[in-house]
Specification:
Blueprint (H helix, E strand, L loop, with lengths): L2 H21 L16 H4 L4 E2 L1 H13 L30 H4 L12 H17 L6 E2 H12 L1
Length: 147
């Protein structure tokens, strides 16, 4: 197995562990999939992904048969399909899981998830990342690395 493949598998396992730990937190939030938060132009907020998160998102996007991010011309997340549903919902980034959606209960307090953020940052450093980047740039870069 190539080093990059092993690194990708290890990163995916760590990201899944972080997302799993988040899901086990007794924080009262419930995503209703209203998708308001997926319209960045309306919310004025765009998720930022670390390298590990971007790798997982890019792999999930590839599993949909896509080789590149769809263009979004209306300020919506490029990961929304024609029906407005997230194409990678089960692999959605940390920011999408801890978002600012009022319908889901509002944003998580940073103190509630700081340990998980630090784990994402540590994995980013281990992977040679340079911090979180906006979703389009982060996933676009990860897709290029998958080629």
């Amino acid at each position: 197995m190539k080093r990059s493949q092993k690194q990708s598998i290890d990163a995916r396992q760590e990201i899944e562990a972080i997302y799993g730990d988040l899901a086990q937190r007794p924080i009262d939030r419930n995503c209703l999939r209203r998708k308001d938060c997926c319209h960045f132009k309306l919310t004025g907020r765009t998720p930022h992904l670390t390298k590990g998160e971007a790798m997982v998102a890019a792999q999930a996007l590839r599993r949909t048969g896509r080789k590149e991010l769809p263009k979004s011309h209306d300020g919506a997340c490029p990961l929304l399909d024609q029906n407005g549903d997230c194409m990678i919902y089960n692999d959605r980034p940390f920011g999408c899981r801890t978002h600012f959606c009022a319908a889901a209960g509002g944003p998580y307090a940073r103190s509630e998830v700081l340990d998980l953020i630090r784990r994402l940052e540590a994995l980013d450093a281990k992977l040679g990342g340079d911090g979180a980047h906006e979703i389009v740039d982060a996933i676009g870069s990860a897709l290029q690395q998958l080629e």
